Amino acid sequence: MCGNNMSAPLPAIVPAARKATAAVIFLHGLGDTGHGWAEAFAGIRIPHVKYICPHAPTMPVSLNMRMSMPSWFDIYGLSPDADEDETGIKRASENIKALIEQEVKNGIPSHRIILGGFSQASANSVNKDMHVLQCHGDADPLVPFVFGSQTAEKMKSLINPANVTFKSYRGLPHSSCPEEMVDMKRFIEKQLPPISDE
């Protein structure tokens, strides 16, 4: 998906059960693929929503001793003051924009597309009217809970604070849980309701 790296296969897709009038594009975390998330979304499927779970290209990741793995961009460190791979983030952003543009060409209006992600993956464009659901386990050993809280507060300073929902999950490590998937389904249903001609 990223740049000109052709190592990333086509996205895993959960098609809408009927005509797709909305889409969710969801990016996996470091070292993962879109397949697991596609399976998770199939479990909370909404009939008029198409789920697109792209796969990151395989690249060396500095954080993991330059081992090659699926990654949207390089990660130099996990501390708040670590350098960031701005070029890689911009490249990933452009590729996600291309996915959105493709769905618009397929007939789904941009306001009926939700962008989401796990861990490394996150939306990197902000619209002050957008709605955000941010979920975080309070036992996450990889991305400390305080980082999630700080991110939610930062989002509230960038967009309408009433549009930001931060949900925490007791005892959840760096993963997802059924309660979180139900919360995601409710968020998607609220943001992407069926339209009258369905």
Automatic annotation (TrEMBL):
Transmembrane segments: none annotated. The keyword Lipid metabolism applies. InterPro entries: AB_hydrolase_fold, LYPA1-2/EST-like, PLipase/COase/thioEstase. One of its GO terms (biological process) is fatty acid metabolic process. Its EC number is 3.1.2.22. Residues 11-120, 122-191 form the Phospholipase/carboxylesterase/thioesterase domain. It is found in: Cell membrane; Cytoplasm; Endoplasmic reticulum; Nucleus membrane. GO terms for molecular function: carboxylic ester hydrolase activity; palmitoyl-(protein) hydrolase activity. It holds the Pfam family Abhydrolase_2. It is an enzyme of class 3 (hydrolase). GO terms for cellular component: endoplasmic reticulum; nuclear membrane; plasma membrane. Homodimer. Acts as an acyl-protein thioesterase. Hydrolyzes fatty acids from S-acylated cysteine residues in proteins such as trimeric G alpha proteins or HRAS. Acts as a palmitoyl thioesterase that catalyzes depalmitoylation of proteins, such as ADRB2, KCNMA1 and SQSTM1. Acts as a negative regulator of autophagy by mediating palmitoylation of SQSTM1, decreasing affinity between SQSTM1 and ATG8 proteins and recruitment of ubiquitinated cargo proteins to autophagosomes. Acts as a lysophospholipase and hydrolyzes lysophosphatidylcholine (lyso-PC). This is Acyl-protein thioesterase 1.
